[in-house]
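Section: protein folds

Sequence with per-residue tokens
===
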Amino acid sequence: MAAKLVIKGVHVVAMGFANAFLIEGDDGLTLIDAGYPGKEVVVFEAIRWLGRSPKQLKHLIFTHGHPDHIGSAAAIVRETGARTYLHPLDIPIAQSGGPFRPLPPAPGLLRRVLCRIFFHPNERVAPVTIDQPLTAGEILPIAGGIEVTHVPGHCAGQVALRWRPGRMLFAGDVCMNVMGLADPLGFENLEEGRASQRKLTALSFDAAGFGHGEPITRDASTRFRNKYRTNLEDVHQERSAA
């Protein structure tokens, strides 16, 4: 199956260890993130599986500018002509194709090992032109309304995107959902990352999608609140232990 239904109007497109999401709107298709390099065929297969044409992909919105989220962007845009969106702090990376900012691993031995395996700052991807910078707090007039929340930490230009008609949050790599909600592989800034995790607990949403791991289809904001309502003292203790 090229795409799997998450909620009505949203399909997850599995691209190896990374996910992208297709939103079906009255104004065409919107893709959240573009996966690793060489995964454009997976996206096109998913679109055709939905009975659509790649030319119906009108918008390509990035949660952040890491190679597993922008890697196939140039090829997708070349085929579809989709309009691209990214936070200003990550636009220079996307438009140059790298290198990427260093990503210190998240706390824990497993994250330290996996971050070294999967993230390489000197990696290069095909450059992609960004048509529109994303602004924190704006509501994009796309697919009935997509709200932008700036959530730095894992990546300086990371945003979370809340699709209002379906009450679904696309969390990027604020966290992942592999065997439960957990940290991403790394943080450019751990304290900012923790603050962003807490920031999402103030939002209301039913479903959630992640760059890595399984989507949550119900009670997602409750699960975020139960996981991430921590205080700053805990964060400082964690940084000292790391």
About this structure: The chain is about 30% helix and 25% strand. The helical segments are 40-49, 67-70, 73-80, 91-96, 109-118, 190-200, 220-228, 232-241. The domain at 4-241 is CATH 3.60.15.10 (Metallo-beta-lactamase; Chain A).
